[in-house]
Amino acid sequence: MLPTPSTSHVCFDRVYEPAEDSFLLLDTLSSPSESAFLHQRFGQNACVSDIAPLVLEVGVGSGVVLGFVAANARKIFGREDVLTLGTDINRFACQAASRTVETAIKDSASRTTFSDVINGDLASSLKPNAIDVFIFNPPYVPAELPDFTHHDSYNILPTGETRTTFDQDSYLLELSYAGGEDGMVVTNRMMEQMPELLSPARGVAYLLLCAQNKPEEVKQRVRNWGPGWCAETVGSSGNKAGWERLQIVRFWRITAQDTTQH
Amino acid sequence: MKLLTLNFLTCAIKSCKTSPASFPLHPRDAELEIVEADVNLAFLQNILPRLMWAELRTIASELGLPTLPEDIPEREALVEGRGEGEGEGEGGEQIPSQTAKDLHRVLLETCIQEGKLVCGNCGHEYAVKEGVANFLLPGHLV
Ligand SMILES: C[S@@+](CC[C@H](N)C(=O)[O-])C[C@H]1O[C@@H](n2cnc3c(N)ncnc32)[C@H](O)[C@@H]1O
Ligand SMILES: [Zn+2]
């Protein structure tokens, strides 16, 4: 087991605390089968192996997942010239996650490079075709979306105050789990951006879904994006009678080069 | 935020993405801070093919930084004393050249702490506060 980044500086009253879903992502990304897949795609012998891969995590929260990837890139990808970038709609999460990733890199003596965490909606501020590895643990619970009308004021400390209010914290935490109908409203918006976002040559995405999100439908949708698109479940937890509560789906595109290699 | 990050960002407004003027975003009223970090030669070499050099030069000049060379440096130019038999330090590790150090300073050590990032297409201004850029659009979620 690879070490989990420290998040002891993070205030979990308003930033999502690492939970079963976060840990499922860590375990899946560092599992022997995913490391093998990622080494093949990004390691020494991969095509364009002398171009630094860009890892984007949307909705970084505490930064535990991005920090883990930054700290353990050598084991996960077989290289350390990896650049990590995050986004979150919650400004407090952006600040917390930056510190988590920087600390994780320092503590592990990893040679990866951290870019920044952007306060934004999903990946809307990112250049198309730029992302090699995409990670998203979305707000996936089927629960009404929060009322966004106060977002701007809830996203910063109240004027002249040094603390957030209770309503503000509740709102920010709601953002971290409430996913609207089927828990899929935010994820669906993200999926729409995905084909343009991922790098055509080696883009791969990891998305966490819960059973209510209808993962089989999600996978089918990806396969319908066009020739070469694949989607598979590569990690799961909470198995009960063949019914997985949480799972990680990997999306990727098989390029002409992959097929000639096999 | 680091200047390297600007290499990957564009205006968040959907209709701007197809317009070349939406990249790069132009820093305005920027307060810069130098945050020192170790030079990572292998990373610098492998990030070169991803850099939008002309745009990076524009950003550097808009920020009043020293002018970047007209052409993007070659990989080899980032290593000290190549070809003269003195490019190796202890344990055969390569030593970063001045070019590498300058590039490192611009991309990874020069941070925008406060200011705005302006889209050249629609003029929208994104605020940077305490080093965090805010790309949320009004009514973006509704
Ligand atoms: C389930 S939490 C996951 C946090 C962290 N990645 C982890 O695994 O522990 C979901 C995160 O997504 C963020 N989020 C929700 N909606 C978002 C949006 N539209 N754009 C960016 N981030 C969003 C929340 O603020 C929260 O930090
Ligand atoms: Zn614009």
Automatic annotation (TrEMBL), chain A:
<dbReference type="InterPro" id="IPR052190">
    <property type="entry name" value="Euk-Arch_PrmC-MTase"/>
</dbReference>
<dbReference type="GO" id="GO:0008757">
    <property type="term" value="F:S-adenosylmethionine-dependent methyltransferase activity"/>
</dbReference>
<keyword id="KW-0808">Transferase</keyword>
<dbReference type="GO" id="GO:0008276">
    <property type="term" value="F:protein methyltransferase activity"/>
</dbReference>
<dbReference type="GO" id="GO:0035657">
    <property type="term" value="C:eRF1 methyltransferase complex"/>
</dbReference>
<dbReference type="InterPro" id="IPR029063">
    <property type="entry name" value="SAM-dependent_MTases_sf"/>
</dbReference>
<keyword id="KW-0489">Methyltransferase</keyword>
<dbReference type="GO" id="GO:0032259">
    <property type="term" value="P:methylation"/>
</dbReference>
<protein>
    <recommendedName>
        <fullName>N(5)-glutamine methyltransferas-like protein MTQ2</fullName>
    </recommendedName>
</protein>
<keyword id="KW-0949">S-adenosyl-L-methionine</keyword>
UniProtKB/TrEMBL annotation, chain B:
<dbReference type="Pfam" id="PF03966">
    <property type="entry name" value="Trm112p"/>
</dbReference>
<dbReference type="GO" id="GO:0070476">
    <property type="term" value="P:rRNA (guanine-N7)-methylation"/>
</dbReference>
<dbReference type="GO" id="GO:0046982">
    <property type="term" value="F:protein heterodimerization activity"/>
</dbReference>
<protein>
    <submittedName>
        <fullName>Trm112p-domain-containing protein</fullName>
    </submittedName>
</protein>
<comment type="similarity">
    <text>Belongs to the TRM112 family.</text>
</comment>
<dbReference type="InterPro" id="IPR039127">
    <property type="entry name" value="Trm112"/>
</dbReference>
<dbReference type="InterPro" id="IPR005651">
    <property type="entry name" value="Trm112-like"/>
</dbReference>
<dbReference type="GO" id="GO:0030488">
    <property type="term" value="P:tRNA methylation"/>
</dbReference>
